[in-house]
Design goal:
275 residues; mainly alpha; two-stranded antiparallel ribbon; 73% helix; globular
Length: 275
């Protein structure tokens, strides 16, 4: 705290940095291990986001808990049925293996509709799909090509880092002042540039190749649109953060909002590139 009793910016930045390092370390270890350790982490993160979504919309906890339970299907049960954790050979990945992805997406949409009907809250059904599609996609990507999971993580992290420092150091016109007053056009461009460099470097290092070699900047734009979407939801609901679970970062949804659309887009690009 400063002498006037207000938060010390340096202390807040240190807290954010320390929490960020821990989250990145946990994510990297889980991605490397793959299989059930990774799937359990994805399920836990999805459950936390569903919990925060329900709290932001001020619904009864029972309905939120039901949504968290339903998330076990797209994160643990369905992936194991369609993409068994113990059966993965990246050398034999073929387009037809991903035909079942559409079944998974359809099943998630059906569960979301059922959840909407039971709770009589469209926001809950949409929140379930909003979290479940990316969670399912991430598990599939880990099963198919875990280096690609590292790639999309690095691209999203680079977007956040470069957008933050570009926005603070350059400033300039606001990007969407009614939605997120702190975001600037310089931050958007800086984030895309950082994502482009990180994406190309990661694709080269992991030998992922085209089209991912050139997709970093586009994914950086998508990540920032995901961030803006969650900011719009929070502003409409009158909340600052999705929760206070992560010191210096807010909630899990606050931390992963940009990642969600990038995950789905990466899986779709992979499927299209194999066709």
């Amino acid at each position: 705290m400063s002498e006037l009793g207000t938060p010390d910016p340096a202390s807040d930045l240190l807290t954010r940095f320390a929490a960020g390092v821990v989250m990145i370390a946990v994510a990297c270890v889980a991605i490397y291990l793959g299989g059930w350790p990774f799937r359990l982490l994805v399920a836990a993160a999805a459950g936390a986001m569903m919990f925060e979504w329900g709290d932001m919309h001020r619904v009864q906890r029972g309905w939120t808990v039901l949504g968290m339970i339903l998330l076990a299907a797209p994160t643990l049960v369905v992936p194991e049925l369609l993409f068994p954790a113990a059966e993965r050979d990246p050398a034999e990945i073929a387009p037809e293996l991903f035909d079942q992805v559409w079944q998974g997406f359809a099943g998630i949409a059906a569960l979301g509709l059922l959840y909407t009907l039971l709770s009589r809250r469209l926001a809950l059904g949409w929140g379930f799909v909003y979290v479940a599609w990316p969670a399912f996609s991430l598990v599939v990507l880990s099963w198919a090509w875990f280096e690609l999971v590292f790639w999309l993580m690095l691209v999203t992290w680079a977007t956040d880092i470069f957008a933050y420092f570009a926005g603070r150091s350059i400033g300039g016109p606001k990007l969407a002042p009614r939605i997120s007053p702190n975001k600037t056009w310089s931050g958007l461009i800086g984030g895309m540039a950082g994502a482009g460099v990180a994406g190309a470097a990661a694709a080269w290092a992991f030998r992922i190749g085209e089209p991912f070699l050139w997709l970093g900047a586009g994914m950086g734009l998508l990540a920032q649109l995901g961030d803006l979407y969650e900011s719009r939801v929070k502003r409409r609901l009158g909340v600052k953060d999705s929760s206070s679970l992560i010191p210096g970062h807010g909630g899990v949804l606050d931390r992963l909002d940009g990642l969600l659309p990038v995950i789905v887009a990466t899986l779709l690009v992979l499927i299209a590139s194999l066709a």
